[in-house]
């Protein structure tokens, strides 16, 4: 491959292009008119404007992107995450046009895009799954029978959903019919597919996902787990690797299960297998994401492996240069997603200009971002402006470095989730490792955050007073 087009924007476009350049391959950026001054455009060897700000008039225009790629003699297209990254028909069209889609085969994307098809595919592999049914339910009486068998509360999920969209918890039989009808009509209007199924509701799970790499020579390995339980409304905010709850036995078992899931759909490239882990440390397969994930850097930090480089090598038909035994966990990594949202005001979107933007620097601190001081954050896209990633020998060391890095990060002009991050990394439930997906709901209020700030202010005031009195003492004695 001599030239790769990155069909994305922001931090991920820049991050992918850095590796492409490092590998001696030329880069092509695409951009919408509001992004013309973005760092990803400046960084690329060539850049093409493909339309106006709304995604469906630019970054989602698959045919136009392929047209640009052909015109510029591009060999491969990297989709990043979001946008066209999990669009099976786009990947197929890319391949049909003689360009390499840097990702799995269309079939794997298609299977994993449907939760029911995914369950069907992995069925024969003995992967633990949440008790429930693996077919679409339409008949309420049958649904009631199933629910009675698995026991309430149950969860109704949309087959075409994902990331929590279209889920409904049902606590008692009287509510089932209404909730089921709602779930079906919601799924129909949101995804154009009304198929829903039923699972036992796991009340306080942790969200643990396993990174996979699979080449075209029959090798599939895992790169351990990422813990992604700290999220609000299905939007992850803090991720870490490794998870503080997995024993090495459980890590081994979940890794094996994830590899089986990948093999079940003939997976190629980098992918992620999501699991729920319940209070008794039972794990259950949820879904597979057939793309590079936002939180991939924590895996890169603990393994020393550049996942984008591996994606490209696999797309070039190279054999993985290492096997399962060669991959080890070298320390602990944390990631905080910096969103343009107001931590103190219910995470309301914060729009404006980055009047001050200074990133923390130092050994074991990594910032993946796509903006510069003076830039305006466009309202058209995801509000994530950066990812702050740190690495330490231990979890404690990583947490300390993260707190320091948050303090050194200077952003003025917009509100961000940096204060929220500080709240998390100071919270006992997080530092002790005793938390689940309800962390934010359970502990976070803007008052709790203000209280933490007040406490800091009080400590600062006491220190100042102490210093002042001490100074006075010294002055008196001489
Ligand atoms: C569940 C669950 C409890 N029980 N399934 C949410 C996202 C989607 N990938 C699946 N999700 C869940 N599925 C059963 N049977 C709880 C969630 C869930 C969740 C999962 C991972 C991370 C955060 C979450 C927040 C709320 C609910």
Descriptive report:
The chain has helices spanning 10-22, 39-43, 62-71, 88-96, 106-113, 115-122, 140-150, 173-191, 248-264, 296-303, 307-315, 395-408, 418-426, 428-432, 439-443, 446-477, and strands at residues 3-6, 26-32, 46-51, 76-78, 100-101, 154-158, 168-170, 196-200, 206-214, 220-232, 235-241, 269-277, 283-289, 332-339, 341-342, 348-349, 356-358, 365-369, 384-392, 410-412. It is α+β, with helices and mostly antiparallel strands and 478 residues long. It has four domains: 3-102, 3-Layer(aba) Sandwich (Rossmann fold); 131-200, ATP-grasp fold, A domain (Dna Ligase, domain 1, 2-Layer Sandwich), CATH 3.30.1490.20; 223-254 and 289-310 and 321-440, ATP-grasp fold, B domain (D-amino Acid Aminotransferase, Chain A, domain 1, 2-Layer Sandwich); 445-478. Strands 13-12-9-10-11-14-19-18 form an eight-stranded antiparallel beta sheet, with helices on both faces. A five-stranded parallel beta sheet has the order 3-2-1-4-5. A three-stranded antiparallel beta sheet has the order 7-6-8, with helices on one face. Helix 1 links the parallel strand 1 and strand 2 (26-32). The model has no long low-confidence stretch (mean pLDDT 96). The longest helix is centred in the last third of the chain and has 32 residues, at 446-477. The structure holds ligand MV4.
């Amino acid at each position: 491959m001599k030239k790769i087009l990155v069909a994305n924007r922001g931090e991920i476009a820049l991050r992918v292009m850095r590796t492409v350049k490092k590998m001696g391959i030329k880069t092509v950026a695409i951009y919408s008119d509001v992004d013309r001054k973005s760092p990803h455009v400046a960084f690329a060897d060539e850049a093409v404007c493909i339309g106006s700000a709304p995604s469906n008039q630019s970054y989602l225009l698959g045919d136009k992107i392929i047209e640009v790629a052909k015109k510029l003699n591009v060999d491969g297209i990297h989709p990043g995450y979001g946008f066209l990254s999990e669009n099976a028909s786009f990947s197929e069209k890319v391949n049909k046009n003689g360009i390499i889609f840097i990702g799995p085969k269309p079939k794997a994307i298609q299977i994993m895009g449907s939760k029911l098809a995914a369950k069907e595919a992995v069925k024969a592999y003995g992967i633990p799954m949440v008790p429930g049914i693996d077919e679409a339910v339409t008949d309420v009486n049958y649904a009631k029978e199933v629910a009675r068998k698995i026991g309430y509360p149950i969860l109704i999920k949309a087959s075409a959903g994902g990331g929590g969209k279209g889920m409904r918890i049902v606590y008692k039989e009287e509510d089932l019919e209404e909730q089921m009808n709602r779930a079906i009509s919601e799924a129909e209007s949101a995804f154009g597919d009304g198929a829903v199924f039923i699972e036992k509701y796991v009340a306080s799970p942790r969200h643990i996902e396993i990174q996979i790499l699979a080449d075209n020579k029959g090798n599939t390995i895992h790169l351990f787990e990422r813990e992604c339980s700290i999220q609000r409304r299905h939007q992850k905010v803090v991720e870490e690797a490794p998870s503080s709850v997995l024993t090495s036995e459980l890590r081994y078992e979940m890794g094996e299960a994830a590899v089986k899931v990948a093999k079940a759909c003939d997976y190629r490239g980098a992918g992620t297998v999501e699991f729920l882990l319940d209070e008794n440390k039972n794990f259950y397969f949820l879904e597979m994401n057939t793309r590079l994930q936002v939180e991939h850097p924590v895996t890169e930090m603990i393994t020393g492996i550049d996942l984008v480089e591996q994606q490209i090598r696999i797309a070039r038909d190279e054999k993985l240069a290492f096997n399962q035994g060669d991959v080890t966990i070298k320390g602990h990594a944390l990631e905080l997603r910096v969103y343009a949202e107001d931590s103190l005001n219910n995470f309301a979107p914060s729009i404006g200009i980055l009047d001050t933007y200074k990133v923390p620097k130092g050994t074991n601190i990594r910032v993946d971002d796509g903006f510069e001081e003076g830039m305006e954050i466009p309202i058209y896209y995801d509000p994530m402006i950066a990812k702050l990633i740190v690495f330490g020998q231990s979890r404690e060391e990583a947490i300390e470095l993260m707190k320091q890095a948050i303090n050194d990060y200077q952003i003025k002009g917009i509100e961000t989730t940096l204060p929220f991050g500080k709240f998390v990394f100071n919270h006992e439930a997080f530092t002790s490792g005793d938390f689940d997906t309800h962390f934010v709901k359970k502990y976070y209020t803007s008052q709790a955050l203000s209280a933490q700030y007040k406490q800091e202010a009080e400590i600062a005031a006491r220190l100042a007073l102490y210093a002042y009195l001490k100074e006075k003492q010294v002055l008196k004695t001489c």
